[in-house]
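Troubleshooting log. The previous structure file for this entry was overwritten by mistake, so regenerating from the original sequence record. Sequence copied from the archived sheet and checked twice against the printout by T.R.
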Amino acid sequence: MPGVKSIGCVDCLKLVDNVALRGICRMPVPVMTDVQMVEVFDEAECSCKTERDNRQNTDTASLKFLAPELLPIHLHLGFVVTDVNDKQYLIGAKEPPYPQVKVEQRCGLPSGDGAGFFYEITHIALKSLVPCTATLYPET
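Regenerated output below.
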C-alpha cells in the first residue's frame, strides 16, 4: 500500500457474508455497520502477501499501529484501512478465520517515544485486504 491514512475497526460478526469470495471476484465489499475510527500515533504499516500452496492461493494481511486506547479485543475485530489515495480495504470476514490481534502496552521513553498500545493484526484467508466501501464518521 502507498501509505495508511486512517484505520477503523468493526465487529466481524456484523459484516456481510462471503467477504473472501467477493474479494476473489474483485467485487468491493460493502461495510454496512458502524466503523469505530482508531486514533493512530506515528505511521501505521499495512501489507498483504499471497502464497500458492497445493494449487490454492492464500493471502496473509498484516497491519501494525500504535494507538492511545485499548480496542474491544474480546470481539472478533475486523479493520477498515484507508490509504493515502482514499482507497479502502477490509481485513476480516464474518466467517472464520478471523483476524488475530496481538496487543502490547508500551510506556515509551522520556525522550518522546509514544506511549500506548501497539497492535499487530494478522489475517490469513483465501483473500484478505479486500477492497471495500465504508462510511467513516469522525469521532465527536
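The beta strands are 4-11, 29-31, 36-38, 41-53, 56-67, 77-83, 88-91, 100-106, 116-125, 130-134. Archived copy saved in two places this time.
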